[in-house]
Amino acid sequence: MNRKLKPIYVQQTLRDKGVSLFSPQEFQRIFNVSLTASQEFIKGHGYDLFLKLRNGLYALRIETPMEELIANRLYMPSYISFEYAMARYNLIPESVYSITSATTKTTREFIVNNLSYTYSHIKNTAYRGYVIEKLNRSTFLIASPEKALVDYLYFVHLKLKSMNDRLDVSKVKKKLVLEYAGLFGRKNFIKFIRQIL
Asked: pLDDT (tens digit, 9 = 90+) per residue, 10-24?
């Protein structure tokens, strides 16, 4: 085992650099060791030092990253959207117990620390309308209020989600909502949006 890789040193270095999530390749670059050494160290300290989020993605046990940051890294490319983002923006009054994201990849769900992370596929042309949000020392991608609403309503229109009867669209920019709706390339969807607005 490489002498540089001592648990306390590794933990402190990752914290000092603000690295809360990492792959073996990122670990390799941070500590300037071989990929084999980084994989062996991570595997050897999987119970005391690191938390495996999925194959190839790890976090420090003592400092679990924010759920939003995990959501962005767990399945890439993705940005937080749908009900989770809508709840953050008070477009729906309910609390949401699943982190919902949009992705250009296949629809998937992961359970990490007893929390559901769901990823719904959208077409490449509609993969925009998100912002970079900074919180503490972390940054993550989240849909704007208008894009979160459009993403959600697209799936309602496809009958893959049910309409929330307490949806509040009074604070969204209607022109922007219609622009984002146009990204999906369906005239009947824009007509559906106009009825809701």
From this structure: 999 999 998 989 999
